[in-house]
Design a protein that fits this description.
- It is built from ten helices and six strands.
- It is α/β, with parallel strands linked by helices.
- The chain has a six-stranded parallel β-sheet with strand order 2-1-3-4-5-6, sandwiched between helices.
- Helix 2 packs parallel to helix 3 and helix 8 crosses helix 9.
- The two termini are 27 Å apart.
Length: 221
């Protein structure tokens, strides 16, 4: 089930320097978006945003002459707040965190594009942030702590099961661990994400694209 999105078709500028990728993305987006421009460089992206004033930008991170992140920063400095959806092959959590801290609205891996890109656009259009689930929990920074808070694979599994509505006893059975271990993981997650209740935890998981039913969870060993 897709998140609710405004009924009007968003006007989108698409930027990708790989011709075949760009053509595939155009076909994917054309049913739900109005593509006002498709460009293949950072400079052309900057010019297109100024010229067309789109509702959304979908862009690669790495492009000839300048990258998408530097373009977004220049636009932000000029007061242009158009949402940026980064679609990239770079799966490094530090790059995703850097993009989000700079003002990106979504970070999607090309390896999981397609329906996920459309989902990310729906999420962004509804006013939220989206990150590819395999990266999401790893790039969440607790406010005011000054450093990135990373979750382990097991903590990610616990977080996803909590978001699915399972209680600690059920999670323990799913993971093959004790209830005490589950509670320990849950406490560590809440500390890392700076939340103080299960409801806040679920909301944080939803905000970062980890809500089961919208995304595939990692397999439980």
């Amino acid at each position: 089930m897709m998140p609710e999105m405004p009924a009007d078709r968003p006007r989108v500028v698409l930027a990708d320097d790989h011709r075949l990728v760009a053509e595939g993305l155009q076909r994917l987006l054309e049913d739900e978006c109005e593509l006002v421009a498709c460009v293949s460089s950072g400079t052309a992206l900057l010019e297109a945003v100024h010229q067309y004033a789109p509702d959304l930008v979908v862009t690669d991170l790495s492009m000839p002459d300048r990258n998408g992140l530097s373009v977004m920063r220049e636009l932000r400095a000029a007061g242009v707040q158009v949402p940026f959806v980064f679609l990239t092959m770079h799966a490094e959590p530090t790059l995703a965190e850097q993009a989000l801290r700079a003002g990106a609205s979504a970070y999607v891996l090309k390896s999981s594009a397609g329906e996920e890109l459309l989902r990310a656009i729906h999420v962004v259009r509804s006013g939220r942030t989206y990150i590819t689930p395999t990266l999401g929990a790893r790039v969440i920074a607790a406010p005011g702590r000054g450093q990135k808070q990373e979750l382990t694979d097991k903590q990610m599994q616990v977080l996803q099961l909590v978001s699915a509505g399972l209680r600690s006893k059920q999670i323990a059975a799913e993971l093959g661990v004790s209830v005490r271990t589950v509670e320990s993981h849950k406490y560590a997650i809440m500390q890392a994400l700076d939340v103080h209740s299960t409801l806040e935890l679920v909301r944080k998981a939803d905000e970062y694209g980890l809500t089961p039913g919208l995304h595939a969870s990692r397999p439980i060993p």
